[in-house]
Each structure stands twice: as C-alpha cells, then as structure tokens.
Specification:
There is one protein chain. Strand 4 and strand 5 form a beta hairpin. With 668 residues, the chain is α/β, with parallel strands linked by helices. Helix 6 packs antiparallel against helix 8 and helix 8 packs across helix 9. The protein has three domains: 204 residues, no CATH class; 291 residues, Rossmann fold (3-Layer(aba) Sandwich); 121 residues, Rossmann fold, CATH 3.40.50. It starts with 54 loop residues before the first helix and ends in a 14-residue tail after the last helix. It contains 22 helices and 20 strands. It binds pyridoxal-5'-phosphate. The site of pyridoxal-5'-phosphate has 21 residues, from helix 9, helix 16 and helix 20.
Length: 668
C-alpha cells in the first residue's frame, strides 16, 4: 500500500459539514493538521467489529488492508506498530498488542456503519468500477478493476450481500448497502468530507480546475439581523417621524413579507413551492477563474473564484427574490404587483416570476434604460407583463417630471414613486422592490450559503468577498452568510473582509451621507437610515442602470458604519476593461453592473500579487450582459466615458436630505 499523506485543516467547512452522521460537532478539529504518514489512525479505515461475518470475509479484509485483524479491527491510538518495514501487516506485533489488550475496538454491530452526510461532488469519471465476482458461491466479494498488481476486493454490508445485477458495473451513489469500511477505494476523489471513513476526508486537488456544483439549494434564508452587534435603526413614518409599525407597510406589502422585514430569527424556512421554482437553476455554479488568473499572470497563491448567477430565467440574481415575493403575494390574495426597474433585470425577474404563480405584473422602467435595451421590454412582454417607460403619463408623479423636463432620462427614484402611486391607486394591488429592503437582501442569501459549501469542496475559504452594489442585494447575498460566520466568531478565517464596489458616478457608500432619507423622488416611502446622495439625485446616464440608485440598503449602510464592510468606487471604463478580459478568459459576457465586481476582484488580486501575499478572492458574477449589447457595442467603439459626480452637485443634493436637517431616531 502506497504511503498516504495529506494535510487537512478542515478549513472552510460549515458546521453542517463538520458534523458526522450521528450529528456530532467536529468543529474542534478546526485548524488541526493531520498527517496520515505520521499518524496511522488517519491512514487506516476506522475500526469496527465484523460480528457475524464469515471467515473468508475477514480473511479478505485482513489481506487487503493490514489494519484489519481477524478478531476485529485496530485503530492504533498510541501509534502502535502494526506494519513492518515493508508496510505489511506485522503479525507478531499485533499478537503482542492483543495479549496486552491494547487493540482498540468499536462494536457498532453489523450493518450500522456511519455514513458521511457530505460527500462533495462525486466525479463519475473517477468512480471505481467493479470487475468480476471472485467467489460467487460464498458471500459475494467483488474484485475491483485496478491497475495494481495486487487484487483489491470489495465487500457488501449485511449477511446476504447484493444481488448480482445490483453490483455489476460501476458503483453509483453511496448507499448503506454499498458503503463499506472495506478496502476503502470508493469515491476516493470526492471533494471533501469529514466522516468516520478516513478515505472520504481527503480534499481533492483535482477539483480545483472544475466547477463545484455538489451542493444543494439551502432550506432556509439567512437573516443577518439575528447576528448584528447593534440593531438596525428603524424606518421612520414620513409624516409623523416615528418608527414605522407593520400597519404602515400594509398598503404596499403582504403581511408575511413585512414580518420577514423585521424578523430577528436567524434562519427562515424557504417554502417548498418557492424551492421548487428556484431549483430550476439553483444551486448556481461556483467556479475558479483559472483561465482569467492565467491571463492576468497571477501567482498560484492568488486565487479568484466566482459565483455565477446569470443562469437564472432573467439572467441575474434578481429572480432569487422575485419568486418568493410573488409567492407570498399570491398567498395573500394580491391581484396585481407594480414595480420599477432600472436596467430591466428586476422587471424581467418579477415578470417571469409572476407567470409562475399566475399574478399580473406592471413594470415602470427608467426611460434611459428602456430606450437602450429594447429587448428587456420584449422579454417582459413575453412573460405576459406590462411595461411603461418612466417618467410616464400614467401617474401624477411621472406627468409632473415630464412637465418639468420633457427630456428627463428618468431615475430609479422617479420609477419607484410611479410604481407606488400605481399600487395605492388600484385595488388589491401590492408593490415589490428588487433591492434595498432587508427581506429582499435575505432572499439573496442562498448565494452565499451555497458558496460556503462549494468553496469548502475546493478546500478553500475566502480572504475577501466582493460584490457590486446598486441597492446592495447581490452583495448582501454573497457576503452575509460569510459575514454572519465572522460575527458569530465561526469564520474559518476570522480576518475575512467584505468589499462593496459601486460606480464613481453614483457613489452612495463612498461619498454619500449616512442619514435618514426618502427612498423615492416623490417622498412617498418611509424614511430609511442609509448612505444617500439625496432622493432628488439624478444620476448620470452610465451604462450600469442597476447601480444608479441614490441610496444604499440600510443593512449594508449600517454594517459599513460598524466597520464590518469596506466600499470602493470605480470608473466605468476600468470596469468594462476588467469585464472584457474576464469575458475573453472565462467565456461569460458580464452585465455592466457585474463588471464593477470584476474590477473590484481584479484590484484585490493585483494588490495581493504585488505584496507577494496569498489571497482567495470570491466575487459575485451577478448577471450576464446579453441584453446589454448597446453598452458593449459602445465599449467596442471606445465610446465609454468616465464620470465623477461633482462635489457641488453632491452638496446641493444633500441639502434636502431630512436626516441632515434634524430628522433622526432616537429623536435628537
Ligand atoms: C445585474 C445586476 N447587478 C446588480 C444590480 C444592482 O442591484 P443590487 O445592488 O441590489 O444587487 C442590478 C440591479 O438591477 C442588476 O441588474
């Protein structure tokens, strides 16, 4: 038997993965190094008695694996000598140990072997195939196809064994029937797992070049409010300037979503009906950008991973929250949902989700994006929803904006006002928001929860998590589950950082004021405490329509104020350059919004390479850019321009922010 050595620190695994089949918490293994070559406990299969087994079975086990003996199996706790110099079973030494009663036995009884919960991704190409039945007249033992000169046998569990047809050919998914503490060559390349079976503990280096999909959609959303060291400042009633009650939100949202908005429970279960729809494209892939790393000339210890959300029906992460929002509205008896959309991603996501639960959707799209991306309109209409350019003449708010400036390009602030007005003026209609609110951010946490498991499959844990921020939902989705681990002191790397990347043309987090402000232009929404550029802010017509929002999600702003996350503003030419090189290497054309995250990741990678430091970078590739060809065409022609929001305009916009004019909670 070739000596095996591996170094497994268990880093990057979740508590769930660090539980064995009996549910025991194995987190005390964290950070511990195991060298199989030095510690024979980890080079052997665990010990079991084989009560009731036939002699020929035990003989076979003993001959194949020197750590089995005929009266039970050894696990050498104190490094007892079991092997001779040639690593064969040392019978003399084993006899002596038995006489001294120093062999270690566990007797779970036949058939009660513990089965690992987390197997990682099983690579079918590397499955062990079973060859011929070597002793058909006895309890079956199967000879494995092997290049080794020494035949390796496989034993089934239980007295009778499997029927011939069950075990001829390749072994498939592990079941209690085909798992065995026998030779231990099965699924030997599974990505990572802690179990009683030492063979499953290996982290596969080979997996580094592949996509990890070996996880499943989480059963719950993660609510970071449960782990905040300081509670989130409450939303204020726009007229009375007191904290809002659930009744204040009732005209806009169904009760279940309002409950989620204020919930302090750590995990909220995802309804089965929602999971069924999300399962169409989830779990989404997490990949290592190895070709991009190569193109950038990064050293091997600077690794970039990305989670790809573009495979959803609408092409971005937005569908993760659109589906549950429509579902809860349907349950509450809502007859129509109104909403706004910037780039069109959110409108498309809600329009498609409306079709899943047969609920009409009415979308107000920021005019500049409506004109730049005609196929978003076509997509939304193909879903059976209605779409209007904002400002529109359908609402009083829109008409007023057009009166003031007939060429008004629109803004998310105006579109939100229009959607809210349309909602409150029609019966049994409700409103849905694609970002900013806490329940929306929570719905996105499926991204980060999957990423934790998938990265563990690669044997990694990030040093920094990066996402672009418009209202903050995709960044929250990938970052919050990791940040929650950090806040609970459970992170495998306690120094893990979180980087929000925003456009320099709309720099709410980096240059905005942290103060109570309205969420829309017409001042219809409650006041939210967040980084804001002023609700009257008219962002320049940059191509990342989804990032042109005057404020940030209160949760993201709060965490920024607490020093838990960092923010960076980037220019759109740099973002497009980074997105273009990523596209060439990795084959995914990013949405202009996503190029900001790519630029942020690139910045981190270059900084680490320059400092000669290892770094694992994880970023959210939140959407594809197939509807954004107008922008990519401009990029190809060299017509993308940078824009920095002028200081004087910012000062002027901030003068109207209520939070900077004495509105605060608790009252000053
Ligand atoms: C692809 C894409 N990314 C990012 C965003 C920004 O939103 P958020 O910050 O809520 O993720 C949008 C918004 O429309 C988007 O369409």
């Amino acid at each position: 038997m070739a000596p095996r050595s591996f170094d497994n620190t268990f880093r990057g695994m979740t508590k769930r993965q660090l539980e064995d089949a009996a549910g025991a918490d194995l987190r005390h293994h964290l950070g511990r190094k195991i060298f199989a070559s030095r510690d024979p406990r980890f080079a052997s299969a665990p010990s079991f008695s084989f009560g009731g087994r036939l002699h020929n079975e035990l003989d076979t086990l003993a001959s194949n694996r020197s750590f089995f003996c005929k009266t039970g199996t050894h696990r050498c706790q104190d490094g007892e000598t079991l092997l001779d110099d040639l690593r064969r079973r040392d019978d003399k030494s084993q006899k002596k140990l038995r006489e001294q009663g120093r062999q270690w036995k566990a007797v779970p009884g036949p058939g009660s072997y513990r089965i690992p919960r987390f197997m990682g991704d099983i690579d079918r190409a590397f499955e062990v195939s079973v060859g011929k039945n070597s002793a058909p007249w006895r309890t079956p033992s199967w000879q494995l196809d092997s290049t080794s000169l020494r035949p390796v046998f496989y034993h089934t569990i239980g007295g009778v064994g499997h029927a011939r047809q069950e075990h001829e050919g390749k072994l498939r998914v592990p079941t209690p029937r085909n798992l065995t503490p026998g030779p231990g060559h099965y699924f030997k390349d599974s990505d990572g797992c802690v179990s009683m079976f030492s063979d499953y503990m290996r982290l596969s280096k080979r997996a580094f070049s592949a996509a990890a999909t070996g996880t499943s959609l989480p059963k719950s959303w993660y609510n970071i409010q449960a782990d905040l060291p300081v509670p989130l400042p409450p939303p204020l009633h726009p007229g009375e300037l007191r904290p809002c009650t659930p009744d204040d939100f009732a005209p806009l949202f169904p009760a279940s979503l309002i409950e989620q908005e204020v919930s302090s429970e750590r995990y909220l279960e995802i309804p089965a009906e929602v999971r069924e729809v999300l399962n169409l494209w989830r779990p989404t892939p997490l990949r290592r950008a190895s070709r991009w790393e190569k193109l950038l000339g990064l050293p091997g210890n600077v690794k970039i991973f990305y989670k790809y959300e573009g495979g959803s029906p609408s092409g971005s992460h937005k569908t993760n929250t659109a589906v549950p929002q429509v579902y809860y509205n349907k349950l509450a008896g809502t007859k129509k949902i109104t909403t706004e959309t910037g780039a069109g991603q959110w409108g498309s996501a809600l329009a498609w989700s409306g079709g899943q639960f047969d609920l009409p959707i009415e979308v107000y799209q920021v005019k500049v994006s409506y004109e730049q991306k005609p196929y978003r309109k076509a997509f939304i209409e193909a879903c059976g929803a209605e779409i209007f350019p904002s400002p529109s003449t359908k609402t009083a708010v829109g008409s007023k904006a057009l009166e003031e400036d007939p060429t008004c390009p629109g803004s998310l602030g105006i579109a939100i006002s229009e959607a809210i007005e349309a909602c409150v003026s029609s019966e049994q209609a409700k409103y849905a928001l694609g970002s900013v609110l806490s329940h929306v951010l929570m719905h996105q946490t499926v991204i980060g929860q999957e990423a934790i498991e998938q990265l563990a499959g690669f044997g990694e844990y990030p040093d920094v998590v990066v996402g672009c921020t418009g209202g903050g939902s995709n960044f929250a989705g990938i970052a919050f589950p990791f940040l929650g681990e950090k806040l609970r002191s459970e992170a495998a790397k306690p120094e893990i950082r979180f980087l929000a990347v925003e456009p320099a043309a709309c720099p709410s987090l980096t240059r905005g004021a942290y103060a109570y402000d309205f969420g829309d232009t017409a001042k219809l929404t409650p006041l939210l405490k967040a980084h804001t550029l002023g609700s009257g802010f008219m962002p320049p017509s940059v191509h990342s329509g989804g990032l042109r929002y005057h404020a940030m999600a209160p949760l993201i702003s709060h965490l920024k104020e607490l020093g838990a996350i960092e923010a960076q503003a980037v220019q759109q030419t740099a973002a497009f350059d980074a997105g273009s090189s990523f596209f060439r290497a990795e084959g995914i054309l990013p949405a202009p919004e996503a190029t900001h995250a790519i630029e942020g990741a690139l910045h981190e990678a270059k900084a680490a390479a320059a400092a000669g430091k290892p770094r694992v970078i994880l970023f959210n590739m939140c959407g594809h850019g197939h509807f954004d060809m107008f922008a990519w065409e401009k990029y190809a022609k060299g017509q993308i321009e940078d824009f920095v929001f002028p200081e004087e305009d910012l000062k002027e916009a901030l003068t109207h922010v209520p939070g900077l004019n004495g509105v605060n909670w608790p009252r000053p």
